[in-house]
Design brief:
Blueprint lengths: L1 H36 L4 E7 L5 H5 L9 H7 L1 E7 L7 H10 L3 H4 L5 E4 L4 E4 L2 E6 L5 H4 L1 E2 L9 H8 L6 E5 L2 H8 L4 E5 L6 E2 L10 H8 L10 E2 L31 E2 L5 H7 L5 H17 L8 E7 L1 H9 L4 H24 L5 E6 L8 H6 L5 E2 L2 H16 L6 E5 L2 E4 L1 H6 L4 H13 L4 E6 H6 L6 H8 L9 E5 L3 E2 L16 H4 E7 L6 E3 L8 H9 L13 H4 L10 E2 L16
Parallel strand pairs: 1-12, 1-13, 2-21, 7-8, 7-12, 14-19
Antiparallel strand pairs: 2-20, 3-4, 5-6, 8-9, 10-11, 13-20, 15-16, 16-18, 17-18, 21-22
């Protein structure tokens, strides 16, 4: 009996303690929400495509004062932020950053997927109903966010202010602009054929006058007859001696060594090539500055939302690899681009009235041939040959000459349902057979079937849980796969030097930085996820999170009153290396 009374007392203590903690947290939340309503004029969400989380920390002492260092010296920096899904691709990452959800919530199992009902490849933001303004539908198609199945944080801000807040999104990539722009925003992206920024009829019937004027000025043409040269002396670069490695690639006439000539006799190759240089980000910044001025962002009675995705880092990483002289120089140039953006926002809106959030949509692995040279077990999957081999194995197993496999869209392999149904086969059995064949492939680590994922019959392992978050019940394929570490897996086996898309830390590791009114400087070492960003912005603004949000609120963004010496936070000492609350470098 005494034992039972002690257990009851302990339970009562736990319940009351939890209720007290909840009340305190709610008090902080509502107090913060009320304060924020009068303090913020602009939310600036920056996504640096393919910026792995270690690079800002490694280059901190080489940055100037106004770019990355502004956020790192004045805001909350999360040094152990990882995506929790396996499909680390651009569309998926941007959707998670904007919604706080995963594939089942935001609708994107990848940049593209296969639609069994129509028998067509689906690109995430393609929409023929909304042609690109001023462009041929046959050549350009159309675009919209209609396949995004969750609201975004920008959408929620517009709803919370009855349309008084406005949302704009800009990127070199269409998906990098359309997804963060959500359903209620306006999105612009770069036209690689003309060097202009374009949009679709989902957003406007015609371009605003200021966009026409900006495009008519041909800003991209100022880079003709120029070269991408190193920003600093070669001797100051970590990778200064690795220029032009044999496994690096080139885009058109850019070449593999510095200086990289930008001009090209073919106009489309010239405009397209700028994406693979820091000049792509410079053009994005130029357009963003004009947008902020002409649209009067941050000047209304309710806060506006601006999403900017800088894409050059991704293009450069794919061609030259992350451990390259080009990638290193680009990061340093990106720092100056960010400094220019922050200085402009300070002049037009005021940094003291701006919430800034910076992260990335995914990380990146090194070039597999480079990893091989260091003694790692790395390689490239020849996807076309491999799928043909799997298809022939299924034909032999089921004694049929019908095609069983439609294709691979990472991380899904899709079966031909017409073949399965025509032979009166059990789909679950075919999936199991395909899975076993896949697991016998060199360079493949994991495989799980659609049926197993739908039933929740998966191993209790971190990677399987990440595959579950990568799964969409209607849009994903019949078997989801994960390659071995350091193995390149993409339908274009030799199209790129380096690739992402796996659940391994080099692909999931990204920076998360918050800066704004009430957010004090601190470095936080506890593990967090980019899915936490959208609900944290919502809590900061005092609005509800996006409909698909499953992330957690980052308490450090709200609990700015707490001493920097408590919890898992850390300060940045004079020597520039982050320390925990005991002052020990980690």
């Amino acid at each position: 009996m005494a034992c039972e009374r002690n257990e009851e007392a302990l339970m009562f203590h736990r319940i009351t303690t939890a209720m007290t903690c909840t009340a305190v947290c709610l008090s902080i939340f509502f107090l913060t929400a009320v304060v924020r309503a009068g303090e913020i004029d602009l939310v600036l969400q920056i996504t640096v495509d393919q910026l792995r989380g270690d690079f800002p920390l490694r280059f901190r002492e080489r940055f100037g004062e106004g770019g990355f260092r502004y956020l790192m010296d004045n805001g909350v920096v999360y040094v152990d932020a990882h995506f929790r899904h396996a499909n680390t691709f651009t569309a998926v990452g941007h959707a998670t950053l904007s919604t706080g959800g995963y594939s089942a919530q935001h609708g994107f199992p990848g940049n593209e997927w296969y639609d069994q009902s129509s028998g067509q490849r689906i690109y995430c933001v393609a929409d023929y109903r909304y042609p690109i303004i001023g462009r041929s539908s046959e050549e350009y198609g159309g675009a919209s966010p209609r396949r995004l199945t969750s609201s975004t944080i920008g959408d929620e801000l517009v709803l919370a202010t009855a349309g008084k807040s406005r949302v704009f999104s800009v990127s070199v990539k269409d998906r990098g602009a359309i997804i963060p722009g959500g359903h209620r925003g306006k999105a612009y992206w770069y036209d690689k054929k003309t060097g202009e920024f374009i949009t679709s009829r989902y957003y406007y019937d015609d371009y605003p006058a200021w966009v026409k004027k900006w495009n008519a000025a041909k800003h991209a043409d100022r880079y003709r007859d120029q070269s991408w040269r190193l920003l600093h002396d070669r001797a100051t670069y970590v990778y200064g001696h690795l220029d032009g490695r044999s496994w690096e690639k080139s885009f058109k006439d850019l070449g593999r060594t510095f200086p990289h000539p930008l001009d090209n006799s073919n106009p489309e190759d010239f405009y397209s090539g700028l994406r693979f240089t820091p000049m792509g980000d410079a053009l994005t910044l130029d357009f963003v500055k004009t947008l902020v001025k002409q649209e009067g962002l941050g000047q209304g009675e309710q806060p506006d939302f601006l999403a900017v995705s800088f894409s050059a880092t991704d293009y450069i990483g794919h061609v030259f690899g992350p451990n390259s002289l080009e990638y290193e120089d680009n990061i340093l140039r990106l720092d100056t681009t960010l400094a220019g953006l922050f200085a402009f926002i300070d002049q037009t809106v005021g940094l003291e009235r701006t919430l800034i959030v910076l992260s990335s949509d995914h990380g990146i692995d090194e070039i597999p041939e480079y990893k091989q040279s260091l003694g790692f077990d790395a390689g490239r999957h020849d996807v076309d040959s491999w799928l043909m081999h799997l298809d022939m194995a299924l034909q032999r197993h089921y004694q049929s000459d019908k095609n069983f496999i439609v294709g691979l869209w990472n991380p899904s392999i899709y079966l031909n349902l017409e073949t399965v149904q025509g032979l009166d086969l059990d789909i679950e059995a075919v999936e199991q057979t395909l899975r076993e064949l896949i697991l016998n492939t060199t360079g493949i680590a994991w495989a799980v079937t659609r049926t197993e994922l739908l039933r929740g019959e998966i191993a209790n392992t971190p990677i399987m849980h990440m595959l579950q978050r990568a799964f969409h019940p209607r849009r994903s394929g019949n078997v989801l796969i994960v390659q071995e570490p350091f193995w390149f897996l993409h339908p274009q086996a030799s199209g790129y030097a380096a690739m992402h898309g796996s659940p391994y830390s080099y692909d999931t590791y990204v920076p998360i930085m918050f800066s704004g009114p009430g957010i004090g400087p601190r470095y936080v070492s506890r593990k967090v996820a980019p899915a936490d960003i959208a609900p944290s912005i919502a809590a900061y603004l005092g609005i509800k999170p996006p409909s698909g949000s499953v992330g957690d609120v980052l308490s450090e963004v709200l609990e700015h009153e707490r001493s920097l010496g408590q919890g898992s936070s850390a300060t940045m000492p004079a020597h520039g290396k982050p320390t925990d609350h005991r002052g020990t470098p980690y």
